[in-house]
Design goal:
mainly beta, 4-stranded antiparallel sheet
C-alpha cells in the first residue's frame, strides 16, 4: 500500500523560504516519477514540479528559478525547496506518485497516489 506523508509547511513572509518533505512508503521515490502539486480552495490542483526516475525535472513557469525538487533515495523522501516565496504561492501543497510514467508530469490526472497535504501561507 502506497503512503505519502508531507511535512514542512508553515507561514512565512514574502521573500522567505520553506522546504517541504514527502516521506514515501510502498513506493520507491527513486524508481518512479513523483510530483508536487498545490491547490487553493475553489481552484483546480496545479502542478508545481515533478522529478522522473532518471532525475529529469519539470517545473511550472510560475516557480522556475525559485523552487527545486529533489529526492533522497536512501530516505525514500521527496523534497521541494521553495525560495523567494510570494503571496501567490499560498496554497495546500500535495505530494503525488503515479502508477505508471506520466506523459504530462505536471498534470494531476496522471497521478494515482496522494498525500494529505501541507499548508503553505506567504504573507506580504
Amino acid at each position: 500500500q502506497v503512503r505519502l506523508v508531507e511535512s514542512g509547511g508553515g507561514s512565512v513572509q514574502a521573500g522567505g523560504s520553506l522546504r517541504l518533505s514527502c516521506a514515501a512508503s510502498g513506493y520507491s521515490s527513486s524508481s518512479g516519477c513523483m510530483g508536487w502539486f498545490r491547490q487553493i480552495p475553489g481552484k483546480k490542483r496545479e502542478g508545481v514540479a515533478a522529478i522522473d526516475s532518471d532525475g529529469a525535472t519539470n517545473y511550472a513557469d510560475s516557480v522556475k528559478g525559485r523552487f527545486t525538487i529533489s529526492r533522497d533515495s536512501a530516505k525514500n523522501t521527496l523534497y521541494l525547496q521553495m525560495n523567494s516565496l510570494k503571496p501567490e504561492d499560498t496554497a495546500m501543497y500535495y505530494c503525488a506518485a503515479p502508477q505508471s510514467r506520466p506523459l504530462f508530469p505536471l498534470f494531476s490526472g496522471e497521478y494515482n497516489y496522494w498525500g494529505q497535504g501541507t499548508q503553505v501561507t506567504v504573507s506580504s
